[in-house]
Specification:
Layout (H helix, E strand, L loop, with lengths): L2 E6 L4 H11 L5 E8 L3 H11 L3 E4 L12 E2 L3 H6 L6 E4 L7 H9 L3 E4 L3 H17 L2 E4 L2 H10 L7 E8 L9 H5 L3 H4 L9 H9 L1 H14 L6 E5 L5 E7 L4 E5 L5 H9 L14 H4 L13 H12 L3 H17 L6 H13 L8 H20 L1
Parallel strand pairs: 1-2, 1-5, 2-3, 3-4, 5-6, 6-7, 8-9
Antiparallel strand pairs: 8-10, 10-11
The protein binds NADPH dihydro-nicotinamide-adenine-dinucleotide phosphate and magnesium ion.
Magnesium ion (MG) binds next to α6.
Length: 377
């Protein structure tokens, strides 16, 4: 029997890459559910090609969604908890992915998680939902996939330290004054990865790496002091893992999400994949590593401080960033204002414990309100 896969956010970058992977693995997996948000035309094409049992569109009110599509926000949870679904690939962007992640884990599914915002805003809840419901979180994010590939088969007590790599985004070598004025077009020109708009901006601010530090903390149970970041412009080494005896393993490959997506589906096994570009060290050439320049990535330090503060502070950090990035992409605030908005939200936000969904959603709502105020004043 093949394994049933639901793809939440099938119309996005991760969603489309997942379908590319599955097209080569049809003897192992079948697509049982697809969901999109607004891109009805693409979702219809995907549904016609893959014929899943369930198709849902969140924002289906724009026009009559054909093909027997379900509409509305509930389609994410419906798709994620169906009996014919074994693995849920969560490729939704932002906080909207949380309820489906929790529902899938509570229903005992494997969640192949790209939607890192879920773990940042509600790490404690997500980990608990997996434990109580018998579900399993397997990262899709390339750095975390790299860590998982290095530690699989080892005991948690053997791991001493993680070093996640960051490309540094398009502004790595720019002067701080110039970065603050960067345009949307400049921020979307990522040097090594082709991804959705929100994560591409997060890579330019380095918020993405702060989110990933928090993601690593909850996935692998490591203290924040043991999760470091280094800038690596070529994006070939995805992460280093240092073990207690001082030995260091790394996972390497050309920057392409298809391999981490496939691994999240098959972990701990590996299966042959004809689509992977064979690794060639000579084609890669020199690999370089640099420290983070704090003067151009102010939001990274804010994210680390939010992580260390704990409770609902990471929830507020994530929400403030989502609001600020939306405003930046809409042309309403300057690039430099993203970090400034997050900073002002964290200055006035009063954190609480993050062990209930009500507390997390209240924190998310409050931080969004503060962010809209801070961004526009
Ligand atoms: P995209 O913007 O390309 O895709 C987002 C997907 O989510 C689309 O299918 C979109 O639907 C859907 N969506 C958007 N808003 C909502 C909502 N409110 N409710 C339900 N669905 C929604 O993003 P990416 O694929 O780049 O990123 C997805 C997630 O994966 C993010 O959390 C990102 O950080 C993470 N990630 C992405 C990587 C990449 O290479 N792209 C790498 C590592 C992590 P529609 O298009 O129909 O409107
Ligand atoms: Mg990543």
């Amino acid at each position: 029997m093949s394994v049933g896969v639901a793809i939440l956010g099938s119309t996005g970058s991760i969603g489309c890459s997942t379908l590319q992977v599955l097209a080569r693995q049809q003897d192992r997996f079948r697509v049982t559910a697809l969901t999109g948000h607004s891109n009805v035309a693409l979702l219809e094409r995907q549904a016609a090609e893959w014929r899943p049992a369930y198709v849902g569109i969140v924002n289906g009110g724009m026009r009559d969604a054909g093909c027997g599509m379900r509409t509305g926000i509930d389609c994410l949870i419906e798709a994620a908890t169906r009996p014919d679904v074994n693995i849920v690939v969560n490729g939704v962007v932002g906080a909207a992915g949380l309820p489906a992640t929790l529902a899938a884990l509570s229903a005992g599914k494997r969640v192949a998680l790209a939607n890192k915002e879920t773990l940042v805003m509600a790490g404690e809840l997500v980990v608990r939902a997996a434990r109580d419901g018998g579900g399993e979180i397997v990262p899709v994010d390339s750095e975390h996939s790299a860590v998982l590939q290095c530690i699989t088969g080892r005991r948690p007590t053997e791991v001493a330290r993680l070093i996640l790599t960051a490309s540094g985004g398009p502004f790595r070598t720019w002067a701080p004054e110039r970065v603050a004025q960067a345009t949307v077009e400049e921020a979307l020109r990522h040097p090594t990865w082709k991804m959705g708009r929100k994560i591409t901006v997060d890579s330019a601010t380095l918020v993405n790496k702060a989110l990933e530090v928090i993601e690593a903390h909850f996935l692998f149970g490591l203290a924040y002091e043991s999760v470091e970041v280094v800038v690596h412009p070529q994006s070939v080494v995805h992460a280093f893992v240092e073990f207690v005896d001082g030995s260091v393993l790394a996972q390497v490959g050309f920057p392409n999400m298809e391999l981490p997506i496939l691994y999240a589906l098959t972990h701990p096994e590996r299966v042959p994949d004809s689509g992977t570009r064979r690794f060639d060290p000579v084609a890669v050439g020199a690999l370089t590593f640099e420290p983070i320049r704090p003067e151009i990535y102010a939001a990274y330090a804010l994210g680390r401080a939010a992580a260390a503060a704990g409770g609902t502070t990471p929830t507020a950090f994530n929400a403030a960033n989502e609001v600020a990035v939306e405003l930046f992409l809409a042309g309403k605030i300057r690039f430099g204002r993203i970090a400034r908005t997050i900073e002002r939200v964290l200055q006035s936000y009063r954190p609480t414990g993050a062990s209930t969904l009500e507390a997390v959603l209240a924190a998310d709502g409050e931080a969004r309100r503060l962010a809209r105020e801070a961004a526009c004043s």
